[in-house]
Design a protein that fits this description.
The model is unreliable at 1-64 (pLDDT under 50). It is built from 1 helix and 20 strands. With 287 residues, it is mainly beta. It has one helix spanning 282-286, and strands at 8-12, 15-19, 28-31, 57-60, 64-70, 81-88, 91-101, 104-107, 113-114, 119-120, 126-130, 139-148, 166-170, 182-183, 193-198, 208-220, 226-230, 242-247, 250-260, 267-270. It has a single domain, classed as Thrombin, subunit H (Beta Barrel). β6 (81-88) and β7 (91-101) form a beta hairpin.
């Protein structure tokens, strides 16, 4: 889900299926834009109260009604969601992530890779802002390390898309003990209702979510890793957003959103932490 257009090649039941996803989705790697970097990112303190955002339909200029809604960042499951910010000089890469433990964040692996320098961002230059909303956030922490999906290759994303997930280890705990979301790596069947919400580029200061969408198909990338195709609306910046399912009176993560289609109405998610997965530190591997 990078700014450059990409196409994802997917194999299903031994037959090659080409899915033209067009402008790759959701993370945005670009020079700093003052409109996207409120004062809270330039030295304001954390731990402030984040006030509820009123519900309502987001309307994008020139495109008419949009199914995404502004959500209340104080309520489950959104209170576990935050903005992932990776910095290298004037370059800022902004994505979405979610707490899966008080000191661990789940996001997309490509969000941690600098496609200009062809190197991963330094962990110390990567920050997670929990409950980011407007000019406030509920807590912040820096990364001390991160691991990516077992087969992920940032220079060959199309072939290793199913491993496009990462876990960031934070330098301190964030949130309440019951705030983190559990991950269920079960394969979701077509028709499963899901919710996806993140910090899309057109509303970068708030979480907007498509709450009425579903899984369309479960496929496999060329490396054999599973993918979930969905019909949720998501845009650049929502990379790393959790694919959420409501099960037995609580929310669980079934995937990580990583790519979107030409009209932002079809997307691809990956399934993290499957049994037998061996995520690795890509920086240590290179060294």
């Amino acid at each position: 889900m990078c700014v450059k257009a990409r196409r994802i090649h997917i194999l299903m039941s031994g037959c090659a299926l080409l899915m033209a996803l067009g402008p790759a989705a959701s993370s945005q790697t670009r020079s700093a834009n003052p409109d996207d970097l409120p004062t809270v990112l330039r030295g304001s303190t954390s731990g402030v109260q984040v006030y509820p955002v009123p519900n309502g339909s987001a309307v994008l200029r020139g495109t008419g009604p949009d199914p995404r809604e502004l959500v209340d960042i104080n309520e489950a499951p959104w209170r576990a969601v935050g903005k992932v910010l990776a910095v290298a000089g004037a370059l800022r890469n902004m994505c979405t992530g979610s707490l899966i433990d008080p000191d661990r964040v789940l996001t997309a692996a490509h969000c941690l890779y600098n496609f200009k320098s062809h190197e991963y961002f330094q962990p110390a230059s990567t920050e997670f802002l929990l409950g980011f909303a407007g000019d406030k956030f509920a807590g912040s922490a820096r990364a001390i390390s991160f691991v990516v999906g077992p087969l992920f290759d940032p220079e060959n994303v199309e072939k290793t898309r199913g491993s496009d997930w990462a876990i960031i280890k934070l330098d301190r705990n964030l949130g309440a003990s019951d705030q983190a979301l559990a991950v269920d790596s079960s394969l979701s069947k077509a028709g499963t209702p899901i919710v996806i919400g993140g910090y899309s580029y057109d509303r970068p200061l708030y979480v907007t979510a498509d709450t009425h969408c579903k899984i369309l198909a479960d496929l496999f990338d060329p490396s054999g890793e599973p993918l979930l195709v969905h019909d949720c609306t998501a845009k650049q910046g929502a990379s790393g957003a959790p694919v959420l399912v409501f099960s037995q009176d609580h929310w669980i993560i079934r995937g990580v959103d990583v790519a979107t289609g030409r009209q932002n109405t079809r997307g691809v998610a990956v399934i993290p932490l499957r049994p037998g997965d061996q995520p690795f530190d890509p920086r240590a591997k290179k060294e």
